[in-house]
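In this notebook, the sequence line spells out the residues, with the fold written below as integer tokens. This is how one looks.
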Amino acid sequence: MDNSDIAITLVLISAIMHATWNAVVRAGSSRFMTLAMVDGTALLICLVALPLVNVPSLQVWGYVLVSVVLNTAYRLFLIKAYETGDFGQVYPVMRGVPPVLVALFSYFLLNEHLSIHAMAGVLLICAGIISLTFVRKMTARMFKPILMAVCAGAFIASYTVVDAKGVRASETVLQYIIYLTVFQSIPIPALAFFKQRSSLAQAIRGQWRIGLMGGVFYLTSYGLVLFALSLDAVAKVSALRETSVIIGAIIAALFFHERFGWRRMLSALVIVCGIILIKVST
């Protein structure tokens, strides 16, 4: 397998894990506390692994700190979106916005140029993802969570480009994964501890298994993506990662009792066609 094939494989595995940990956050009785447990689990794992890698250079520290700010903003919008909206509509919007923005950012900031087939694949994936938003009739109540999801998606696109530069500037992919995860996993658990300490303790006692599973899946998912970003074009990796919405749609139907239906099947087919176009462009 060449680098592109490895990247595609890693990202598709990551997509399954990403949809799963997002469903864990959405299913929690408190989205904020569940996310705090997910981040806390990832933090503890990476603190243990910290001695395995060297301290990053000043350049890499810059990317880590910027990414932490962008990731924290993304998490706050993520919580608001899941508190007010359905998983089946919020998740596709949140994952559909980044590929287009990442393609633009990577063109202007990273000087990455995609072939016609690859760009068509990115656009097909975006169209398929965003179309999942309209499987139900829009109402005024849905406007706020969708707006929150769009904002979250914009921050995802921003930190994806920053992380692509950061992981390529690091000594190893593992170095960037560990240091980034340590620092980006502090803000939400810290907020939960200082603002709602008793609620956090109660959530840990009652739902620690969910938090543990979510944290492991989150860490593995983003670690695979960061490794893929070091192997292939950022726009392609970002678009492929968002195929997690297919898994998300299945989870929404099975666990949240949201209808799957022929429209979601058609959207999934469009996304698969986009993946094929990206694959044949390599």
